[in-house]
């Protein structure tokens, strides 16, 4: 529907701009994406993008503001720079997902509606009484939906972005999950190595990086047995088939795990392609069971 609407606007307005043929609807804000940098947008091109923004406001009466993402998600806080095109200039909004409400901000904290299915899927896997460590919690998408839909003992939710942490605290209160979601401001590795070793039944790593540092911390957080949930980006080479991406991703994960664990056993429980994030680049989710008892 969104792809058709955007194509209709581009054709009707006779606008020719580099743009992804879809958009994210986040609360009452629209976020457009384009394969173009800030430096490449001159006055003429900006005027054309603004036409698209105004047309979206007319087509979608519930939308109050339209923005264009000028950069990919980047940096330690996973932020992107956005450009206002039409409507309200505020970048914060309230976004609803699976019966939960989240205050979000397009500029100061990472949010992706395209992870909605994953939020629900992981919540359904959580067993009653589990302790979860979410190493990169952001505004609370995974953590709060787990708390509302499952019956965890606690969901320890770590993020080093102060803005994301503030929004997480607010969202915990908005959704009345104060008893189960524990917001922690700081570096996930430091937090785990400091006081969270061996406590978790399940650890979430929603920040793609293939980082040995993060993998080691996740392993340290687990008890004797548990599950790690990875979200990694994998490139599809020209000669490869899309269905092979899951095993390709797991082989890379397995390689890093072998670097950081002495004798624990790893087993791939399931995997799925979450979304396309660029030309021939995909995000893959992997659920990996870890057994530390094999070390004894």
Molecular structure report:
The protein is an alpha/beta fold and 296 residues long. The protein has two domains: 2-90, GMP Synthetase, Chain A, domain 3, CATH 3.30.300.110; 112-295, 3-Layer(aba) Sandwich (Rossmann fold). The chain has helices spanning 2-12, 43-59, 116-125, 141-149, 162-174, 188-195, 212-221, 245-260; strands spanning 23-26, 29-33, 65-69, 82-87, 92-97, 100-105, 131-134, 154-159, 181-185, 200-205, 222-235, 265-278, 281-291. The strands form three sheets. It has a seven-stranded mixed sheet, with helices on both faces. A four-stranded mixed sheet has the order 1-2-3-4. It is globular, with a radius of gyration of 20 Å. The N and C termini lie far apart (55 Å). The relative contact order is 0.09.
Strand content: 25-35%
Main β-sheet description: 7 strands, mixed
Overall 3D form = globular
Number of helices: 8
Structural class: alpha/beta
CATH topology of the largest domain: Rossmann fold
- Per CATH, the class of the largest domain reads Alpha Beta
| Count of domain modules | 2
| Helix residue percentage | 25-40%
Distance between the termini: 55 Å
List the uncertain runs: none
- Architecture of the largest domain, according to CATH? 3-Layer(aba) Sandwich
